[in-house]
Amino acid sequence: MKLNRILVATRGTAEDDESVRLACELARKPKAEIYIIYVIEVSRNLPLDAVVEADIEKAEKILTQVEKIAAEAKYEVQTNIIQSREAGPAIIDEAKDKKVDLVIMGLPYQERYGAFDMGKTVPYVLEEAPCRVILLREPFDKEQI
């Protein structure tokens, strides 16, 4: 797999750190560029360019954390906050704009109605991505229930 550009989509979950570590490891030998994004989903009752300070502060905090992870791995990354109505299309647009070869996303284990649920963003990205996608799902011990 030839990698020139990798996109890491963060969500503010524990998997973000592992996603960035994996991206740095995969990017090292080919010296690929790494783009890390956080998508703020803007409610439909607000204008798309609305400034929601709490969301921006959260995004900046998350991106600062993953920049530290990349720095520990001795890798330089580019970060960006994107505002969109939905995260899935924003991730795909960014992947296309940056012409990435790989998208990496973390996925927390979550259930809905008693069954594993990926939400709406991950299936959208898997279906629409113009490149390979790696999902890092957090481990889940069913005995914890």
How would you portray this structure in words?
The protein has 145 residues and is α/β, with parallel strands linked by helices. The protein has a single domain (5-108, 122-138), classed as 3-Layer(aba) Sandwich (Rossmann fold), CATH 3.40.50. Helix content is 37%, strand content 26%. The chain contains 4 helices and 7 strands. The protein has a 5-stranded parallel beta sheet with strand order 3-2-1-4-7, with helices on both faces. A two-stranded antiparallel sheet has the order 5-6. α1 packs across α2 (53-72) and α3 (87-98) packs parallel to α4. The relative contact order is 0.23. The mean pLDDT is 92.
Task: Kindly summarize this structure in a few lines.
The protein has 145 residues and is of the alpha/beta class. It contains four helices and seven strands, in the order E-H-E-H-E-H-E-E-E-H-E. Strand 1, helix 1 and strand 2 form a beta-alpha-beta unit.
